Amino acid sequence: MATFEDDPLLLDMELDLKLGRIRTQVNSKLENQKQLSLVLQAVDENLKDQKQKQSPVTYFVSFLSLLDQCCDGENIKDGNLAGVALYFLDLVSPYTPKQLLRSKFSEIVARLAPALSSDESAAPLLRSSIGVLESLLVAQETGAWINSNNYKISPKRGLTGLLQLSMDHRPKVRKRAQEAVHKILSTVPAGPSLEHPASTLCGEFALNSVMKLLERQQQEKKNKELNTEIIHNLQLIAAITKANSWPLKQILPLCDVLLVVAKTSDQYLVSSSFEAFEGLFQSMNDKVDEDKFVQVLNVLFDLKPAVNDQHLAPSWLAVIARALISYSKSVDAYKCVLKLPDVFKIVGHFFLSENPNVRISASQCLIAIITDSVDVKYLLEPPKTLPEVFENVEEIIEQLSELTNEFLTVKYRESAKEICEVIISILAKFGSRAGPYFTSHLQIIGEWRSNELEGFELNQVSENVIAVAISSIGPEEVLKTLPLNLTNSQATGRAWLLPLLRDNIRHASLGFYISEILPNVEFFEQKIAEGNPESMNIKIFATIVDQIWSLLPHFCDLPTDLTQSFTDDFASKLAALLYEKADSRNTICHALKLLVESNVTYSLGVLEDVILAQKFPLEEAKKNIEYLSATKASKLLSVLFNVFSQTSMAQRGFILETIDAYLQISKPEDLSATFDKVCSILKQALDDEKETDMIKTDEPAAKSSIPKLSITMMDLIVLMAKYVPEFCYNALFSIFNQTVKIADVQIQKRSYRIISRLLEHDAGQKAVLNFISNILSLLLETTETTMTAAKSARFALILDIIKILPADNLHFIPAVVSEVIISTKSVNEKTRESAYETLIVMAAKMVEYEGAPVKNSMNDPEMPDSTASLQEFFTICSAGLVGATPNMISAAITSLARLVYEYHAKLDIQFLSELYQTVELFLTSKNREIIKATLGFVKVAILSLPEEMVAQNMKGLLTNLMTASHEHKNHFKSKVKHIIERLIRKFGVDLVEECIPEEDRKLVANIKKAKARAKKKKSQATGTNAAESGVMSGYEAALYSDSESEEEEEDQPTGRPQQYISESKEMPLDLLDKQTLTHISSSKPKKFTKKTLENEFKTKNGKLIIEDAEEQDDVLNKDSIDAYVEAVRQGPIRGQKNRLRYKHKKGDDIDWDEESDNESKSKPKTSNKVQKPQRKQKKKYKSNRRL
Question: Which residues form the RRP12 N-terminal HEAT domain (predicted)?
């Protein structure tokens, strides 16, 4: 494929495109754009007069001669025209033949010199000059860079000028120069060397500049401007390093300088140094640069700071992490894995630091290296990887385990938490490969947790390590090292492991749970049966039983041995428990559901885990599904159906979900047999209920009751409708036909849901379309008989039907639209939402089949047929405006408002105007419900309709609005005001004031004043906030200032924080034992003494007094005078009729009202009850005399 670089035709096309955009700006309002276009037109005419072709060469020569006209020797006499000439030279030079740029290099640079060398050159002029110089330098060959011809103006001299401009104080100039340096160094001319000939020049310039600035910084510590200059230099270094042009000999001094910068307290300097390092690492991205990268790593390791250097060590550790991650991703990931033990040895020394920030940085460094630099493909086992690679990685893991095991000794006690976090990252990354080597770590950390010392700070991180081990190497390995010992009173009990197992088990052995963990349930159930039900031990035993059962669903989440462990005996045991123990149904159903769902999801290849895919191929999951389908699904469904029929409505959700999972994998013949059985039971139940007159027309009294059998069977049929074979569809339609007419809310709901469920898949949609005429007739027939509570299910079905409605059944839309419109006023939220959505879909269907016939005669023989269109649908909906009841009229207006909002852009302007004017007339109605709906329509119209239309009818609209406001002022005053405010925002206050009735113009004036007050208040609030912000900033500066007084520094203790060792007289501390860590704490150990009951009571006679802790603190902190004054203020006073009352101060109670203070003051405090009108009382005379 041709590129712009090697195809002159493509180059000319791109240049013509850019110049063409400039030519179109001849009428631009911006003078600079207009000037560019005029100059280009003049050059084009000149070339045309000279009969020269418009090419990059002719343009370049023309604009170069134009530049000559603007300059007088070394000075620029016309800056504007010179800027235009340089702009076009910058635009054209990349497309100019490189041979021309090489031959005329000295002449062109000489003409650029006035712009580049002058201190008074404007930034745009400089940027264009830099662009031209960039193109010139990119075109030069190796010989020109060496200056073999001894030119006075050589390419290196031009590049030196660019390097100086890359330090310019103007951001855009500086950035353009740095980009030019990067582009030049990235384009290496043909020659024996892979490095650019000017790389040494650039490296020396940048390095010397930053070193000089660092020396000045040491001498002028208060000069903050030096930091800015250093950042500019570091940006230049980053530009050079990203071009892969930093000289090999200057890597060591560069790393040294960058690390010095990184240890400063200025975050911008640190960030810039890291960016330079990042550029250095990113530039070396292939095998060619491997030696260079290794040298950089060796240099960085040689520059290792002292472990207690709290300034340099964190920065150095961050750079090490970035370097190794870049080495892994860009050069060689395998060799990076082989370097891990050496890195752990070097970085591990920082765990001995006295500074906590250094220790945390060391931990984060190793975590980042493990997480981001270890490629997962090297953790696979043969044959997915080479045996040699497998063995080498195994050795690396063993070495890491030995190193981290050493880190767990008392020597590294201060870093125990950070080391545990590193171990967590290793276990999470290496997974099962780490299992054989990290059992000793689990033993040590498990003992820390088993000691259960109160307040031991490593308890949480110990649990985190064990949790990751459970998910990575599996519960079997963990429990071999840390057994539960629930029934062995002589060994250390670890019941605390049960919640960790529950939250972290996945893809484990189900057989291990059945044989090793589940038997504990029988032991504890026997203890519970024999013990006192009120005793604490029995409650603990019951909790353990629940926790053991809670593990079952997680062992069923993609188990490794499903076909071997999930036997008929175990399935029968679970089935018996489903019948016997209602409390266990949720857990067991969850487990049964996960058995299916986890295998189905995994078999689809959704999970991207290459290690898991090698251990557990997708074919295994498919075999598991086949095993469950062939041997367990039918029997389990029978059990679940029976349990479902015995469960109350409120507790059925999880059972339905489990049934759905097994219906999904059941064989068609089993589904058909089960479906036939359910249908026969339903028929018998309906017959029996009809004979005994059990069919009810209202909702059941409580969801806690078990519903009648017909409802249960209908639930099962709704669930099965999606999965039954196609030959069962006739039976489904027959059930729908019979049950939808039954006057029972619950039956009707489920009847509609049968067809909705069937429409969820393609085969069901085809079947519905085959019976569409019958279904539509039945829906129209049951319009009046459908009960109110079943409307939501009915509209959900109508919505689904409309979506697939064929063109020859469009008559169904006008037949049912009135029911949909009236349902937009339903009190049921689901029904309202479904009605609105159905209206939108109906309109979309009329648009989709625009021009198709609508056979209205099929609904009413006297009605003429019409043609489908959006306007026709609006006309159909508008018929509701002449409804017999206010409810119907308001519903029609609300529906039209929703449709106008959705489809106003697709309607004819004239039709919209007529509709708008028609609805506006309802503002004169005397019915408040109609007016409320009309106000909503007006709001939508103002927002959606064309401004001209609203403006033309503004006078009539405002007249009607104010009339409605006056007649119903207590109901619509705020709504009308809100509409007028919208009109003012959209059309301006002058037009609104002109159109509003004269007697109501004071409302507009009121709105203007309110806006002015709000604006003034907002500006004052902004000023106040700014002042408060300044006060807070000063306060924080004083509080967190680095410079403290010398006296305070003298008072502060120095050195490491104090540590305490807890030991008893019977067992002195063994410092050689690794469990010593559990006896060392940063908090002073307390002596626990047994408290007597006397100390727990406040009075001698044993009366218990409970006081609020805050109240106690308040009393203790106040002196006697304050307490007395507070008591007087809070105490009771004598009110009217000598009654005692308490004074209530403003702000004593919490105000949950979100309204503003002004609004809350203006509103009277009233309840929702009807109250008598209160008489207005005259204001009492208030004396100003103080007592």
Answer: 27-240
